[in-house]
Amino acid sequence: MTRFIDKETRVVVQGITGDQGEFHTKLMKEYGTKIVAGVTPGRGGQEVEGIPVYDTIREAQQVEEIDASIIFVPAPFSLDAALEAVEAELDPVVVITEGVPVRDSIELVARANLRGTTIIGPNTPGLIKAGESKMGIMPAQVFKKGEVGIISRSGTLFYEIAAHVTRVGLGQSTCVGLGGDPVVGLDYIDILKWFEDDPETKGVALIGEIGGNSEERAAQFIKDGGFTKPIAAYVAGRSAVPGKRMGHAGAIIQGGTGSADSKISALRDAGVAVGELPSQVAEALKELL
């Protein structure tokens, strides 16, 4: 069962003493996230933003109750950090790190699936429950509590479309960045299932990009009746050149599949309103809701 966050979620930051970990810990704490501990091996006994640092999650759990983890650990060490969180039965585990080796991501996702743990990422901007808690690097000022759930493979478009949704007066419920790598913990269908059952989410913005077939599979899921709430989408990468990676490791057209046109066509065939511009996603949702 996919589990997301709220104002009561108790978070540990792995890699809290690094530049990125410390910087985003401050911003998450200011937003209201309940950060109860940090972990950096060899730095136990320190404090960051008034938060105690431990050498391991197990040590932290001797003192604090912890629900979830967010990871700012360099790519070569991120698998060990994430598996430590999985073994400690934390959920979700949010892997911000970019550049995680694909083999490591495959191992992490496989082992997490065996434990029933939700992995968000790698290479994700994280997730946010607007007005309550954020586990990620998104600019909090563009989010406002409301009724639109957002699912995105892109970070920048995630923030841009959230800002448009706020601007038209809808606001957001829970917003999740899937991650831009070829192998990530969640796909659109996982989160659509969750949003279908979430009473706070009245409609969804789906933000896709070239590469892979996850948007097409989501479209088939919607077409088959798996998701019944209003939904609008935007797909980035219409001008992408086949065979060239466009920003994300997972954003590449190969063998005639994964193009923006194929994704847009599949989504429209499923009855999804697809915007030509990011701003049109919010406008479509405003009409649908």
CATH class designation of the largest domain: Alpha Beta
- In the CATH hierarchy, the architecture of the largest domain is 3-Layer(aba) Sandwich
Radius of gyration: 18 Å
Treating each run of at least 4 consecutive H or I residues as one helix, how many helices? 9
Q: What is the terminal separation in angstroms?
A: 27 Å
What's the pLDDT, averaged over the residues?
93
Molecular structure report:
It is a single chain. This protein is an alpha/beta fold. It has 2 domains: 10-120, 3-Layer(aba) Sandwich (Rossmann fold); 138-288, 3-Layer(aba) Sandwich (Rossmann fold), CATH 3.40.50.261. The chain is built from 9 helices and 14 strands. The chain has helices at residues 19-31, 57-63, 75-87, 102-115, 155-167, 188-197, 214-223, 260-269, 278-288, and strands spanning 10-14, 34-39, 47-48, 51-54, 68-71, 93-95, 119-120, 126-129, 133-136, 145-152, 172-177, 203-209, 231-236, 273-274. The longest helix is centred in the middle third of the chain and has 14 residues, at 102-115.
